[in-house]
Amino acid sequence: MAKTEASSLVGKLEAEVEIKSSAGKFHHLVSGKPHHITKAAPGHIQGCELHEGEWGKVGTVVIWNYFHGKIESNDLTNSRIDGEAKVAKERIEALEPEKNLITFRVLEGDMTKEYKSITFTIQVTPKQGGPGSIVHWLLEYEKISEEVAHPETLLQFCVEMSKGIDEYLLTEEVEIAPSVAF
Fold first, then answer.
1. pLDDT reported for residue 84
2. What span, in angstroms and rounded, lies between the C-alpha atoms of 175 and 19?
3. Selecting from 1.20.1260.10, 3.50.50.60, 3.30.530.20, 3.30.70.2860, what CATH number does the domain 3-171 have?
4. Lesser CB count within 10 Å: N end or C end of the chain?
5. Mean pLDDT in the chain?
6. InterPro entries attached here (predicted)?
């Protein structure tokens, strides 16, 4: 599932998640309506506030309230087991709707206590030969010291959140912009 690029302080983690939703719907929710993720994955994301800019635009700054730790899934509600509430202030660095790609860079918050820099790139592609899509997560980071762990738990958080978003998209009537290709 995940692969790690080993180095001293700089690294990359990647994972792919198969989903049943279309690439366009998933991308549109994450890039244009991220505040709806609180409904899609409430055990992971408790808040998403527009801090600067406008939804779905490069340069936009978003503040996330999230729960990072061990989570046991329970339908769409995701029961909390062990972990803590955290905050991240992120800027949209790249947005390519034709490729269903978005990159967020962490500016401030809990992650900056352990990482000098960290970016999350999400690209969703239609599955070849059938319905559904593949969500590809890429975490690129620089740790503040050797003692800091690689962010495998953050990657797992992203994978689990993707599953919640997929379930939400399949069960809810989510408004999609007409320009988004499926």
1. 87
2. 19
3. 3.30.530.20
4. N
5. 88
6. Bet_v_I/MLP, MLP-like_ligand-binding, START-like_dom_sf
